[in-house]
Here is the input.
Amino acid sequence: MGDGGFGPANGLVPVAELAPSFLDQRWPAGFPEEARNLLTICHWGCGITSFIDLGDPAGPMWGMDPNPAPEEEIAASLFRQDMTLASWLLRWTESRLYPPWLFEDPNTGKWHGGADADWEGPE
Here is the structure.
């Protein structure tokens, strides 16, 4: 990741900023236990962020979109994504990487992290 500044959205976070941001992060009560292992790697703007889970050797990606969820459901804004860092980077190089947006299910009212189907719509 080197000096950052390249990659999706606002670019990958520079290496010099990774350790301080990881050590300084504090998650409010109600967020998943895994949140303490998350390292910010990309800011998309408007508070939308991509993280890698350092607590899992597979390197799963997590996303956060704090914008649409109501205050009482803010923990739903942090969600595991169905990809690893390797697949996240591959999707970026293939122009198939979407920001981690939060969607509300119109039928249940439950919040969930966006999947490809949410972005691409019904076939």
The two ends are 36 Å apart (CA to CA). The CA atoms of residues 4 and 118 lie 29 Å apart. Residues 15-24 form the longest helix (10 residues). The helical segments are 15-24, 85-93, 116-120.
